[in-house]
Amino acid sequence: MAFLMRLAFYINPPSQLNFEFIEPYTKLFLSIPTTQLSPIANVSVAAVLVFIQALLFNRVINNHGLVAKPGYLGALVYIVTSSLFLPFLIISPPLVCNFLLIWLIDKFLKLGKSNQPHRMLYDSGMIIAIGALIYFPFSVMLLLIWLSLIMSRPFNWREWIMGPLGFLTIFFFLAVFYYWNDNINQFYKIWTPLANGFPAVFIINYSDYFSLIPVILILVLASIQLREKYFKSFIHTRRAFQILFFMFIVAFLSVYAKPNFRIYHFLLCIPSGSVLLAYYFSNARIKWFYESIFLVLFLTIQYFLFV
Length: 307
Prior knowledge:
With 307 residues, the protein is mostly helical. 61% of the residues lie in helices and 0% in strands. The model has no long low-confidence stretch (mean pLDDT 80).
C-alpha cells in the first residue's frame, strides 16, 4: 500500500528532487549525503520509512486499546493519511521525526501508570531534542510533556523539570561542540525562529487541498462517535485522546518556528490524527458506509496526486 500510494510519482517522476534531511546547524557535525539518491530511490526509501512507521504506530495503538479490536487497521490508515500531498511522499525531516513522535506517544500514554516517571520524562526531553536536531519545530513538542503531566499525574515540581533537563542535556553537548569549533555565535542563532511571530498570511492554492475534504468528513464523524462513547470509555482511553488532541494542535501550530514554511511540516500531525481516523473505522457499524468513505478517501488522494 505504501508503494501504491506513490504511484503518481513512479509514473511521472521529476527529473530532479531537492530535499533536506537535517537542519543546517546539525550538518556541522553530521553530514548525510543526499545528492546520490534519484527521485525514484528517494520516494521508495520514503515508502519504506512510512511502512515501518505504520507498523510501529499500529503496535502502539493496539497496546493501548485505542481501537475496538487489535488488527492492522491503524497501519493502513497511517499509510493512507501519510500520502495526502505530493510533498508527503518524499524524504523530509518531519517524516524522519515521526519515528520519534510515535515513540513519544507511547511514552506519554504510559506516563499515568509509570512507577519511574522521572526517567521517562527525562528520556522524552532527550527524544524531543534529537528531533529538534533533525527539524527545529519539533522542539515545540516540549510543551506536550507538561500537558501530559497536567492530564496524567498530580503536580510534582521534580517531574516538571525532568523533560527540559533531558532536552538541555542534548543541546548542552551541541553547544560544547560549537564552542570547540569556534562557532558559538552560530549556536545562538539556532533559537532565533522562536522569536518569530505567527505567520499572518499564508499563500494557499486551495485546489491543492481538496483531498482533505474526505479526511475532514471522517474526523467529524469520528469526533461525534467519540463524544457518544467518551464517558463510557476507560479513563486511560479518555486521557489518551486528550493527549493526542493537544499533540495535533501543537504539531499544527509549531509551523511558526520554521521561517520557510513547507507543506510537509504537517506530516507531524499524521500520527495523532490517524488515531482518530482508526478509531472511527474500528467502531463504525454500517459496513457499506465506512467502506465507501474509505474508498472515496483513497480515490480522492490518488486523483489529486496525479493532477
